[in-house]
From TrEMBL:
The name this protein goes by in its record: histidine kinase
Source species of the chain: Natrinema salsiterrestre
Domain Histidine kinase as annotated: residue spans: 129-342
PANTHER family, sorted: PAC DOMAIN-CONTAINING PROTEIN, PHYTOCHROME-LIKE PROTEIN CPH1
Biased composition annotated in UniProt, kind: Basic and acidic residues: 348-359
Transmembrane intervals: 6-22, 34-54, 66-84
Superkingdom: Archaea
InterPro entries: HATPase_C_sf, HATPase_dom, His_kinase_dom, HisK_dim/P_dom, HisK_dim/P_sf, Sensor_kinase/Photoreceptor, Sig_transdc_His_kin-like_C
Catalyzed chemical reaction(s): ATP + protein L-histidine = ADP + protein N-phospho-L-histidine
Entry EC number(s): 2.7.13.3
Chain spans, region Disordered: 335-359
Matching PROSITE patterns: HIS_KIN
Pfam families for this protein: HATPase_c (PF02518), HisKA (PF00512)
């Protein structure tokens, strides 16, 4: 038979089923009557009774003797002893069952983590093979095309020369995509150990590297002081280089105007790179951070389609977030939120170089 019973401190209604034990020689349908009589002070024979308790997510079998109930016949003490023994056993069995389930869950999690690590290793091996093994054939294609152009240039008509340039440009773009894929795949596995990084000094280096491009496009860059954070200096340099370079590339017909700022927000800081360029449609603001996503054709704008995807992966490695707010024809603001380092670096830690005027 099936009844409901409240077992002491478990604090929940447990569904239990009386279970037949061959050694008792008594049908389970008599079990409730035996227990009731024993509790009421009526003498009963000493037998072992069995229950199967159905707790959410757990099935527990336990048994107890009527002697436990009869220790003090006719008093609640006897009932207390019997219920206490049952309750203790139930609690122990449920705890053991939960521990077993937790152990199985941990084993499944460890297996999933191992599979993920194996998958990442295979991805890195593929990216390395793509970068190393495919680069040489691409270089060979480019070299022979240039050789044809140089050796037979006088004999080639304009169409043929144009075709060669298209082929060389395609090979160069493929090589850039392969290099970008390698960088993307190694953000986690080949990154440098974290250290205190002065973002002002990082931006100095980036602007120095981009100086020719800045001068050529008549770019105007204003900036505010940036904080120090913990992270991978080389990856932060990649991050700033991609964001500033993108702001220059997508400036439209006007000379680029870029502003770099920092806003503390509790334990974080938001670094914003704002431009006054062509902007991005609202429907495209999410997918621009996906790998190999381009909003413009290669004829309109050079690039591998990996720059912003790489930025996102770098930021995520540093427990940060990257987002963009944009309006077509007005400009875009790329916001990078990072954990803020509490103690500023000493002056000796800061590396300075020539920079545009700070605002």
């Amino acid at each position: 038979m099936i009844d409901f019973v409240l077992i002491g401190s478990l604090g929940a209604v447990l569904l239990y089923v009386w279970v037949w034990l061959p050694e008792s020689g008594i049908s389970p349908r008599f079990y409730p009557r035996i227990v009731t009589r024993a509790i009421g002070g009526v003498a009963v024979m000493a037998v072992v009774l069995a229950l199967r308790v159905l707790h959410p997510g757990v099935t527990v079998d336990f048994s107890f003797g009527t002697q436990a109930v009869l220790v003090a016949i006719g008093t609640m003490a006897g009932l207390g002893i019997g219920v206490y023994e049952a309750r203790t056993l139930i609690q122990a069995e449920i705890l053991e069952a939960r521990n077993e389930e937790l152990k199985r869950t941990e084993e499944r999690l460890e297996e999933a983590v191992g599979d993920l690590e194996d998958s990442n290793d295979r991805l890195e091996q593929f990216a390395y093979a793509a970068s190393h093994d495919l680069q040489e054939p691409l270089r060979m294609v480019t070299s022979y095309l240039r050789l044809i152009e140089n050796r037979y240039g006088d004999e080639l008509d304009d169409d043929c020369t144009e075709f060669i340039e298209f082929a060389v440009d395609g090979a160069d773009r493929m090589r850039a995509m392969i290099d970008g894929l390698l960088d993307y795949s190694r953000v986690e596995t080949q990154g440098d150990p974290f250290e205190t990084v002065d973002l002002d000094a990082v931006l100095d280096d980036v602007l120095t590297d981009l100086q020719f491009k800045i001068d050529e496009t008549d770019t105007e860059i204003s900036r505010e002081p940036l904080p120090a954070v913990d992270g991978d200096r080389r990856q932060f340099q990649q991050l700033f280089q991609n964001l500033v370079s993108n702001a220059i590339d997508y400036s439209g017909d006007e000379p680029p105007r870029i502003h770099v700022s920092a806003t503390p927000e509790g334990d974080d800081v938001t670094i914003a790179v704002r431009d006054e360029g062509v902007g991005i449609d609202a429907d495209d603001t999410d997918r621009i951070f996906d790998i190999f996503q381009r909003l413009h054709s290669s004829e309109e704008q050079a690039g591998s389609g990996l720059g912003l995807a790489l930025c996102k992966r770098i930021v995520e490695r540093h427990d940060g977030e990257i987002d963009v707010e944009s309006e077509p024809g007005v400009g875009s603001t790329f916001a990078v939120t990072l954990p803020l380092r509490t103690d500023p670096p000493a002056p000796a830690e800061r590396r300075r170089s020539a920079r545009p005027t700070e605002t």
